[in-house]
Amino acid sequence: MNEPSIETDKRRRETRTGVIKAAKITFGLCVIDCIVLDVSPGGARVRTDVIMTVPDQVILRFSGGSAYMARLQWARGMEIGFAFEGLAPLTGEAASLALAALNALPADGLAASVALLRPSRFLDDPTLMQLAEDAEASYARFKAALKQRLHSNP
Predict the structure, then answer these.
(1) What are the backbone angles phi and psi of residue 122, rounded to the nearest 5°?
(2) CATH assignment of the domain containing 46
(3) How far, in Å, are 2, 37, 47, 79, 130 from residue 23 at the CA level?
(4) Does one domain contain both 18 and 69?
(5) Distance of alpha carbon 116 from alpha carbon 120, whole angstroms
(6) In this structure, how many other beta carbons lie within 10 angstroms of the beta carbon of residue 56?
(7) Structure confidence by residue, pLDDT tens digits, 55-100
(8) Residue 68 CB coordination number (10 Å)
(9) SS3 62
(10) How far lies 98's CA from each of 137, 146, 154, in Å?
(11) Domain span holding position 37
């Protein structure tokens, strides 16, 4: 019962996942609270408390921190459909936090941790060895993505 619903419509290119999540529609100096009803990799359907007009381009900020540039696709009553057009620019505070997080990552990744386990023969266990390799690869991807996000911020 707690599983998000998945909705497929023949007109849609992507599967939508039903969620109930707080978000904000922002444009200019306006901030409108909304609830995200469903989301896909390409967009979201939201509900506001009242019927309102929003411009063609907005930023949709999810309560978890992610924010997307979004284009208005349709509006029916209090429900609005948006298509994502990419990540929204980081705010000054978010960029500062991301830079601090990047700087807090160890320069050698997980190499020091893995090196501590090698003499003890922990990594002779194939499962632990595979997990260590996966962790090192994930760490490298995370660090690269964080750098990319910081450098792509206008």
Answers:
(1) -60, -35
(2) 2.40.10.220
(3) 20, 10, 10, 13, 38
(4) yes
(5) 8
(6) 9
(7) 999 999 999 888 999 999 999 999 999 999 998 887 778 788 888 9
(8) 21
(9) strand
(10) 20, 7, 14
(11) 6-87
